[in-house]
Amino acid sequence: MVDVCIIGSGAGASPIAYELANAGFSVVVLEKGKDYTESDFNKDELAVCRRDMFTPPLWEQKHIINEYNEDGTFTRYDGAESGWNFWNGSMVGGSSNLMSGYFHRMKPNDFRLKSVYGEIKGANVVDWPLSYEELEPYYTKVEQVVGVSGKVVEHKFQEPRSTADFPYPPLQTNGATKWYDKACKALGYDVMPTPRAILSEDSLNRKGCFYSNFCGSYGCASAAKGSGRAALLQKCQVKIITNAFVYRLESDDKRVTRAYYYTKHGVRHSVKAKIFVLAAQAIESSRLLLNSKNEYFPNGLANSSGEVGKNLIFSAGGSGSGRFVFEKLSKEQQEELMQPGVFFNRSLQDWYEFSEDGQKYKGGTIDFLFEHQNIIPRVMQEVYDSDGNLLWGEALAKNIHKRMTTSRVLTFEVFNDWLPTDRCFVSVDEKVKDKYGVPVGVINLYGHPQDLKVGEHLAKKALKVLEELGCEEIDYSISASPPPNLVAGGCRFGEDAKTSVLDKNCKAHDLENLYVSDASFMPTGGSVPYTWTIYANSFRVAGIIKERLQLKKNLHSFKNKML
Amino acid sequence: MTFSRRKFLAAGFLSSAVFLMDGCSLFGVTTPIDTIKVLHRDLFPKAAELNIITAPYMYIVFHHSRISKSDKVFIKNGVKWLNEEAIKMHKNSYVKLSSLKRQGVLRSIAKTEWGESFLYNIMGYMFEAMLGDPIYGGNNKEAGWRWLAFSGGEPRPKKAFL
Q1: Which of A63, A256, A369, B54 could share a disulfide with B129, CB 3.0–4.6 Å?
Q2: What is the rounded end-to-end Cα distance, in angstroms, of chain A?
Q3: Range(s) of the domain holding residue A176
């Protein structure tokens, strides 16, 4: 029997493995995907982005998606038939390998949303049982151990920090950021460099960023990106079993006893451990618990509250863009604009909280970045003319050439709270099964109207920057469409075992030895991408488990001595 | 990457017969690859100007482990429907029409839902061949990238993902 068995290997799992293995405990990680090293990663657009090499084919593993309609019904989509893909990276290190690494901390008020902003009709907003001050040391630890580069600048919503600045200087940026900074100054907006989980220089036995021009969606060949694999799992003695799909956790009335998994050939195995940590990413963690029902937990493991799968959240908001065109730029500016590799890295948090019509709203974050460099989708955007007709032949070639060589698109992404509601949750479909014969997860989707209102407010502020910059074709879209890579909730933590799945330590209320350490624990998500908070919380939970195991070990030694 | 005769023969789906109907009667037989070769040239002659041959990439598409069977069937059906539109309009299969008439057929199908979807699909794969990594056999000596002043990301793949 091992000390700890971890299901999953991403941002929620890897800090646990790192901390416990380095403290001398035996740790087994069960990961559904394959393992990779830096030398396996390249920038093959066809493999990574067109053929989705890091996620399972949908005809083998899919989700059922129920989208809520205004009339109270749900429209059902089969993930394979519709191509609606909620997988984010089945590989050692999970989707942290493929993230862009836009790292923002949650703000103190994000931990007490209900107390500060009050009830919201139709939403299940609650305060966290944890404060920012309690999590702060772990945010700092992530900066240092995983590696976050950036520069702290004072602004209205700058969160308190225990250190003055980031441990790594900001990454290099494109010359166009100077124009952005000037535009923001003219508008009275606070310029803020975007912190990134990317090393800007060689450190931590990893290389600094190579500026390959292809970051998000791709594995990092330099190991500069702070994936759970590069930053943590490669730095501890942990047994990682790959191609291991965990389909059931076995328990008695108090403890999880075994994790059962299938190999890629469908052979069944199991692992026994003193402590089990579930971190398979929010939707799959809830699915596994619901699929693990037994005589003691007939509604799903750790689900005496009936809350498993409930209050699933994503990041609300949307995106927008504007195009810099050569006609409006000097020769020097044109060259600056087209400089490849270096980042844009600018954010706005001026409206993390705002008032409208006398009411105070929780706002959010806006990140500015260049359009992804993948060439094929950029070219495919040009196959329609302005009237929506397909273009081909000479006209298309001329259009593509002009757009690709004499303009560049600046985009922005809005992150605001996706309010938790009764209509957005995970369940399982007893009839539809994946290639292992296991019931697939059902994602029930609903976006609260306030999410859209806040998103609109923020997007309009971002548009002013694009206008000030002289961009053309300015456009944006705020919708209730969920970003699959920004998902949380389903096993919210709280003090009350009747209304939450996990306690403050992210241990299941119902079981003595089951922890959930991915984003499932989050009752609300803040208005930032989740990864930094997932890492920080996982380091916190690792400390709690370490203390528990250490205590047990000391007691054991003491008993032996007494004998 | 070159396409050996063995690989060509193995690529049954792309070189297998597509029966073309004129109403209820059999008009003739073609293969997807014959039509796609001409279709690619009609849709984007710039590729040939750059010495990029895109049609053989469709062998990879039709055998790719990550492209669903239904996507492959859709292309094959699209080839059939394109040819049947050509027969309906000009009493001949697509490849046997003049360039002018082929353009007319394309304009006609682009107005239909299936035709628009088919052409979009075909162009997607065509640009994959033209602008994907040269290891996949298109994008001859990076001519597609050079045309657009684009640099592929580093490191480059050492083998194709099939």
Answers
A1: B54
A2: 24
A3: 2-562
